[in-house]
Amino acid sequence: MKRLLMICGLLFSVITFAQAQQDGGRKMKSPEERAQKNAENLTKKLSLNDDQKTKATAIFLEQANAVNKAREAGSGDKDARRAEMKKLSDETDAKISALLTEDQKKTYETIKAERKDKMKRGGRGDGEKPAGNQ
C-alpha cells in the first residue's frame, strides 16, 4: 500500500513538473521585439521595400505600446478590453494598408482573411484542438 501511494505521488509530481516547464518557457516580448517581428513577417509575405518596412515597424511599435497600456490599465470588463483591442487592430490594419501597393493590398487582405479563419478555429492552423482541451 505504501509503495502504491509512493508511486502515485511520484507520478503526480512528474506530471506537475512537466506542465510547469511547458508554461514557464514563454516570456512576453517587448513592444520593440513584437513590432520588429511583425514587420519582418509582413516584409517576407508582401516583399516590402525598405521605406515600407521602416514605416510598418513604426506602426507596429505604436500598436504594441497601445496594447501594453491597455493591458496595464487592466479593465475588468472583458468585452470592453476586447473592443479596445479590436479597435487598435483595425486602426493598425488601415495604416498598414495605406502603405501598400494595390498588389500588396490584395495579398494583405488574403493574409488577414486567413488569420481571421485561423482565430475562428482556435488559433491552430490544422483545425485540431490543443492536446489539453479534449
Automatic annotation (TrEMBL):
Coiled coil: none annotated. The keyword Signal applies. This is LTXXQ motif family protein. Residues 1-20 form the signal peptide. Residues 22-49, 68-90, 110-134 are annotated as: Disordered. Residues 24-37, 69-90, 123-134 have a biased composition (Basic and acidic residues). It comes from the Bacteria. It comes from Pedobacter caeni. Keywords: Signal.
